[in-house]
Amino acid sequence: MEIVAFCCQWCSYAGADLAGTSRLKYPANIRIIKIPCSSRINPTFIMRALSKGVDGVMVAGCHPGDCHYSTGNYFTRRRLMVLKRLLEFSGINPERLQLYWISAAEGGKFAESVKDIISKLEKIQDKPFPKNPESSP
Amino acid sequence: MKNQSYIELTAMLEQKINQLLSENKVDYLIVYGKGSFWFKTRPLLIRKQTEIEKVIWNRFCQFNLSTFLKPGSRKGEKIGIITKKCDIRSVVELIKNNQINKDNLYIIQVACDGIINWQKLENLLGATVSKVIEVEENALNFVIKMPETNIEVLKNDYLLDKCLICDYQQSFYADEFLITSEEKVEEIKNQFLPSLEILENMSYEERLEYWLKHFSRCMRCYACRNVCPVCYCPTCMFDSQEGLWISKESKTSENYVYHLTRAFHTATLCVECGECERVCPVNIPLMKLNNKLAKEVSEIFGYQAGLKVDEVSPFKTYCQEDSDEFK
């Protein structure tokens, strides 16, 4: 299983750092991409990742109200609410997209979130876009 | 087509255009002209009074002319445009997003009783529309004149889907509203619309199969993007040379990303004019995606595109009290 995590550099990436320095254990299926703010997420990032064969996408940002740029994550929330419904309508299980609010002090929550998304994805059977292009539809 | 109110409206339209051009109120007008067949129309730009006779108005004027207002095609000239009630919403959307200056625009709204969907007619006849000699109409029915027979069909069954829920009122943003003296606006509101429910009730796998089946036909001609009145980016991200968002090969998964991205980009802008679906050479039901998104946006944010110039699109603003459905 492969998961792409988009982590905002001010909160969630620092949270992931803290999880590492606190030696917390979390599944190794995750590939973290650092982004300046969770609102830097272009919905196409997520769709592209899914179409290239990852199992799930995790977006992590500062808690609402705590954004480094004051309001960035409010925009993210609005966009991802609509994107989630679009993915659902076009046949991708919306559980494949998860958004978490993780602050820089929440190393534990970061590890929990990774476990959470893995447990959710394990319940989903089929994969819309297999990684191997030969067998893709 | 012999319909008294449409003949009358065409005359009024010609008169109005003549007046606008002679008073130099506009530099040119975007109107409907005669197409290659009697049942086809095409967009036409007219600059001279001598060209006025080319203007037509009938039940086949289905384009959304506001596509030609997109920034690439204007140079600060004063433009007159003919719109139906539905098209005016995309003009509003262009004004709202600062793509066109309202002062340079003269909007003529023409009363419209609905546009004939000639694909539905073809399905009924089992033959091409070019076999039809004429379509006449009475209060409730269309009379389709074929070489041998006349077929009478209920109007509502052969109009575009969007016409069934249209309310035909004058838009607040129209500079001029042309309507015939004997006001016989037919009551065809609140019709049943082919809904999204069938798709919504499917399982994820069935829906994915449905969309992949359609997207596998896509050859990425980008007609849907080019015709869309609200796809106004100077350089589309799919044309951008800085980083290839999707590969150039026409693969189903890439087509999937393209169509979903396009649907998402127009999510709060789409006025559901149906142009993308009309131009699609392989008949992908794109309006299902757009309708679904418009429905969701109105459910979540209570926003409908193209109604007011001073409204703010929900993606351009935020609200701390938004429901937090994520953790």
Keywords:
heterodimer, A: 137 residues, 4 helices, 4 strands, globular, B: 327 residues, alpha/beta, 5-stranded mixed beta sheet, 9 helices
Describe the structure.
The complex is a heterodimer of chains A (137) and B (327). Chain A has 137 residues and is α/β, with parallel strands linked by helices. Helix content of chain A is 39%, strand content 17%. Chain A has a four-stranded parallel beta sheet, with helices on both faces. The longest helix of chain A has 18 residues. The model of chain A has no long low-confidence stretch (mean pLDDT 90). With 327 residues, chain B is of the alpha/beta class. Chain B has nine helices and eight strands. In chain B, helix 7 packs across helix 9. The model of chain B has no long low-confidence stretch (mean pLDDT 85). At the A-B interface, helix 2, helix 3 and strand 4 of A face helix 5, helix 7 and helix 9 of B.
What is the rounded distance between the termini of chain A? 20 Å
Question: Which runs of chain A of at least 5 residues are low in confidence (pLDDT < 50)?
Answer: none
Estimated share of beta-strand residues of chain B: 5-15%
Which secondary-structure class do the elements of chain A indicate? alpha/beta
Question: In summary, what is this structure?
Answer:
The complex is a heterodimer of chains A (137) and B (327). By secondary structure, chain A is an alpha/beta fold. Chain A has helices at residues 12-21, 43-51, 72-89, 107-123, and strands at residues 3-8, 30-35, 56-61, 97-101.
Topology, pairings included?
The complex is a heterodimer of chains A (137) and B (327).
Chain A: E1 3-8, H1 12-21, E2 30-35, H2 43-51, E3 56-61, H3 72-89, E4 97-101, H4 107-123
Parallel strand pairs in A: 1-2, 1-3, 3-4
Helix pairs in contact in A: 1-4
Chain B: H1 4-22, E1 28-34, E2 41-46, E3 79-83, H2 85-96, E4 105-110, H3 118-125, E5 134-137, E6 141-145, E7 150-154, E8 176-178, H4 197-200, H5 204-215, H6 223-227, H7 252-265, H8 275-279, H9 286-301
Parallel strand pairs in B: 1-3, 3-4, 4-8
Antiparallel strand pairs in B: 1-2, 5-6, 6-7
